[in-house]
Design brief:
Number of strands of chain A: 13
Largest sheet of chain A: 5 strands, parallel
Number of helices of chain A: 8
CATH topology of the largest domain in chain A: Methyltransferase, Cobalt-precorrin-4 Transmethylase, Domain 2
Oligomer: homodimer
Strand content of chain A: 25-35%
CATH architecture of the largest domain in chain A: 2-Layer Sandwich
Distance between the termini of chain A: 58 Å
Number of domains of chain A: 2
Helix content of chain A: 25-40%
CATH class of the largest domain in chain A: Alpha Beta
Low-confidence stretches of chain A: none
Chain lengths: 244, 244
């Protein structure tokens, strides 16, 4: 019995953005567990069992991974991006609640390049000053809380990164967020839509809030909003290190 | 003339956290530019010139790097962590202002593992829900703005990550921030002090706000503050995916 569990971040898509630490963990694993498209990024090999599962079963997936580690297997739970940012790490720790026998396992979180930082790098440096990171999905929190946090962030002049800005099940939420931002930040504030960063489908587009429409975002997009000082220089967008 | 410039993130310290993309850029470079301790992390080799410089000369360093790229050299500007988070990317873009001849250069930002995400991974998943990232240094912004942003973040129940929480030149600022947080978040809120993450000097310590003292942070520390739902499970601290 020398089971262990790593919760590993695969980064946004490009293999060149996977850390050597994560690659080594996958090379040492007997089992890889995760959402179907992330497990599809792992190269099959003898001795490695892949366990792809559907979306929205995060707690069941986490419990299954912990049970395997408890049986002595070497398990990697894969997330896109960083496992600690709207990904599998919190689900694994939730699954540890009231399971003291699992809490003693060898469990490690291996960080990865999260989407907002890959997107910011492609655009320039729009998160170069204080910023807030907000998940716009209302699966796990009320829409009123999302709007309150966006309002607080905008009023305090944070730059912002939005994960899961828009999905088929809530097509109108993001339009309301854009209207809220326009009201507080004005029409000229810069906003970057970064879709499928570091993949062949990558699209990066920076516009003003006046020009922004909800259709510019989909489930594969991360959205970056500048602060009052964010500006363009050449083909880049960046936020200066100094406050205005 | 085929000069280029990459602004690359070296991660928090451990070579296993440097992305292959960054390693490849350094392997292809003729010149590496950066703050002394970061350039010290680069292995010297024939054909590579190292240009270490002191702290607080970021704009001069950026301009020197751009001038070398304009002369046809292959230049990597190195930052610790991620170059877009309180690091060199914004300084390079600032140095591009009013220099249209430099704006046409081949310039790329290569993301890295930023300190807060490496620290969160070591502690568990304290940034597993919406969070704010704030630089507590008052070098480039007034202390009043820092306090206003911390207040806004705490009142909207964001988790928080603080960079540069404390330095010899402003020993009292962080004590005021802790008092402010205690007033809004109460004495039981969890706070993690992560020092020198992924280096031999690493220290990770999670306490309550009631127990936290300014001396727990220094210039090598990143501080993570939980939201109202952040809790311990076993030896870990995490923020659940659901709002309270």
């Amino acid at each position: 019995m020398n089971g262990w569990l790593c919760i590993a971040g695969l980064g946004p898509g490009d293999a060149a953005l996977v850390t050597p630490e994560v690659t080594a963990a996958i090379d040492a694993a007997t089992d890889v567990v995760g959402y179907i498209p992330y497990v599809a990024r792992i190269t099959p090999r003898a001795g490695l069992t892949l366990h792809p599962s559907d979306n929205r079963v995060e707690l069941d997936r986490a419990a299954a991974a912990l049970a395997m580690a408890a049986e002595g297997r070497q398990v990697v739970v894969v997330s896109s991006g960083d496992p600690g940012v709207f990904a599998m790490a919190s689900a694994v720790f939730e699954a540890l609640e009231n399971r003291p026998e699992w809490q003693q396992l060898d469990i490690r979180v291996l960080p990865g390049i999260t989407a907002m930082l890959a997107a910011a790098a492609r655009a320039g440096a729009p998160l170069g000053h204080d910023f807030c990171t907000i998940n716009l999905s209302d699966n796990l929190k009320p829409a009123s809380l999302i709007e309150a946090r966006v309002r607080a962030a905008a009023e305090a002049d944070f730059a912002m990164a939005f994960y899961n800005p828009r999905s088929a099940s809530r097509p109108d939420t993001f339009g309301r967020i854009l209207a809220l931002l326009r009201g507080i930040c004005g029409p000229d504030r810069l906003i970057t839509f970064a879709r499928a960063v570091s993949t062949p489908d990558e699209q990066i587009r920076t516009v003003t809030l006046a020009e922004a429409t909800p259709e510019m975002a989909d489930m594969r997009t991360v959205v970056l909003v500048g602060n009052a000082a964010t500006r363009r220089v050449g083909r880049f967008v960046y936020t200066p290190r100094s406050a205005v």
